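ASSEMBLY PREDICTION REQUEST
Request ID: AP-0331
Submitted by: J.K., bench scientist
Number of chains: two
Total residues: 545
Priority: normal
Notes: Please return the full assembly, not individual chains.
Input sequences:
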Amino acid sequence: MTTTTTTPAAVPAVVRPPVRAGGPSPVALVGIEVRKSLSTRSGRSLAAASALLAPAVTAFVAAASDETLDSVTGPLGFMGMLTGLVLLSLGVLATAGEWSHGTVQTTYLLVPRRGRVLAAKAVAVALLGATAAAVALALSAAVLAGMVDGASWDGAGRAAAVLVAAGAALALTGAGVGAALANTPAAMTTLYMVILGVLPLARTFKPEVGSKLDPAEAVLNLSQGHAETQSVLVLTGWVVVSLVAGAVVTRRRAVA
Amino acid sequence: MIEVSGLTKQYGSRTVVDDVSFVLEPGTVTGFLGPNGAGKSTTLRMMTGLVPATAGSTRIDGRPYDALANPAAVVGTLLDASAVHPGRTGRTHLRLMAATVGVPATRADEVLELVGLTDAAGRRIGGYSLGMRQRLGIAGALLADPPVLVFDEPANGLDPEGIRWMRDLLRGHAARGGTVLLSSHLLGEVESTVDRLLVIGAGRIVADGPVSDLLGSEGTAVHAADPAALTRALETAGFHVQHGADGALVVPGAEPGEVGAVAAAGAHVLTDLRPVRRGIEDLFFQLTA
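STATUS: Completed
Returned structure:
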């Protein structure tokens, strides 16, 4: 390995820098967590993928399909769900990634109150999720407007609002599960196996399982105005359970 | 000042740190020694709140670590140089730390220069050698120029120039009234850097005191132009004389001044006169065996 160091400065100059008296404010901490998420290639790639995957798929499907589209809310809902599934990973990286790389040590040495850090991470991840979902929806809508004629746009505004919120919710769910498992591969595998494997399989035997547990189905239903209360409860349940589990484990876990 | 009182850590029925207590005063460099698995790192992690203690407490400036308003402004810590994201650049890593600590972003470049990493500041940490990561960790600990430094094995991977620089840094920090706790397995490095030794074995403090007291004097070694004549003079004065491998005369239990006085009285020519000290390695193995 190439070593690139220069001769260190002789004895350190004794000019104490100006230092803030207290800890970072909640707003500053959220900003730092956003910067952390976007300061690595994996974080930036996931953020870009979550914003660009849906419009790319929309363009591909619109170009390849000959069928007439009655309403844009269906495709927008599906693309919002797709974005949300990618945002699960962004959330996982924000929390489990710190444990996997050991950076959690620096994080908690600088801000030992772990609840403050986790709260800031939750807000940061929700903001990133909502922003990525909004960009993805705006681009998808632009693609639909440019490539699809005659489709109804009734309900598109409500669907967009729902999907932006769903983006935040699924990113938060990823952050909660990541904090609870503290291991990036384990958290991603668990989430995707449950959402894309176990729940669809269970639904073939017990269809009511999907409506009561599946967050992807909840996003689709909400975007089209179906089963709204139940869908909100499903998404809220995933967010609350994962965040509570993440908070409980994070507060107790030793940083080796 | 750091006050550690009765720190204990148990995993099930296994006690890895057992009732560890010590006080670190400003203006001192304290070496924290112990074999692998003795409990050094666990103690340092309990002191900084990373590992919950089963019993006991740590107070830094009178407060537990997690009650300090801005901990990094009080304690600069380097516990594990590999605990960094390999995908970030050194500069980005330090700027994120600077934002959290509350020092200007320009301070990141200042400490990078201080540790000799300016040229590598824009490179991803994944491409850094162990020594470069140690320097980066030291840079992070120095961001706020805190009064207390706690370093766990900071010399790992450093080249001789880096080790000398780190020694000067730590001695200079203590000379300015700072407090330093240095864990290391490089015994020679510790001996030449610290004022005081804390030795931990099997989770318990087995020695705590100034280096000079712990190493102590075991006698005097002397080289003379006429060793046989000096031997006779010393034995006449009541000293027991042993012959060392390099031609030295070793006088167990004698101070150099006593041997010098005998030599001066008999007009013996001396070419070397020095105390025989127990080596830190001998002390380490004796205490931790």
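REVIEWER COMMENTS: The longest helix of chain B spans residues 160-175.
SIGN-OFF: pending second reviewer
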